[in-house]
Amino acid sequence: MIVPPDRGMSTFMMIDQAAAQLEALGNPTRLRIYRNLVRAGDAGLPVGRLQEQLGIAASTLSHHLRRLIAMRLVAQERHATTLICRANYPAMEALIAFLVAECCADAPSGGGIGVED
User: Fold this and answer.
1) Beta partners for 78?
2) 21 SS3 class
3) Taking 90 as the threshold, does the pLDDT of residue 30 lie above it?
4) Residue 39 has pLDDT above 60, yes or no
5) Residue 9, SS3?
6) How confident is the model at residue 5, as a pLDDT?
7) Are 107 and 70 in contact (CB under 8 A)?
8) CA 94 distance to own-chain centroid
9) For residue 17, which of 72, 101, 102, 104 sits 20 to 30 Å off, Cα-Cα?
10) Residue 110's pLDDT is what?
């Protein structure tokens, strides 16, 4: 998860971490996996159902899930014999917050998003 600067992490480290998370999401298959998990909500999805939805091999899904888990964008939890995958919403929110934190900070007055000259 990306920690805001007021919690002791340097801007460089935040940029480095955000870049790693964005790089992980830059792969089309991983982005599809992540979007499906975000759409699933807090309940998440069993790995088998996620595989069916995406139409990819189990080994391919496992490979891409490992990367998303390593970047703390996805969490897994075992329920008996079922492995449930969930989007890590706090990490997603932190990444989005990092991206928009300084939106238009250096823009001339009134030069925000969607404002035409």
Assistant:
1) 83
2) helix
3) yes
4) yes
5) coil
6) 46
7) no
8) 9
9) 104
10) 57
Q: Which pair of structure tokens corresponds to residue 14?
A: 């935040």
Written as six digits, the tokens of 1 are 């998860």
Structural domains present in the chain:
9-99 (1.10.10.10)
Question: What are the distances in angstroms from CA 54 to CA 51, 75, 93, 103?
Answer: 5, 18, 24, 34
Tokens representing 51 are: 């595989």
Q: Which of 115, 99, 96 is nearest to 107 (CA)?
A: 115
CB atoms < 10 A from the CB of 38, how many?
15
Residue corresponding to tokens 């139409």: 55
The DSSP string of 27-94 is SHHHHHHHHHHHHHGGG-EEHHHHHHHHT--HHHHHHHHHHHHHTTSEEEEEETTEEEEEE-HHHHHH
Q: How far apart are CA 51 and CA 74, in angstroms?
A: 15
SS3 101: coil
Task: Give CA separation, 80 vs 42, 65, 84, in Å.
Answer: 19, 20, 10
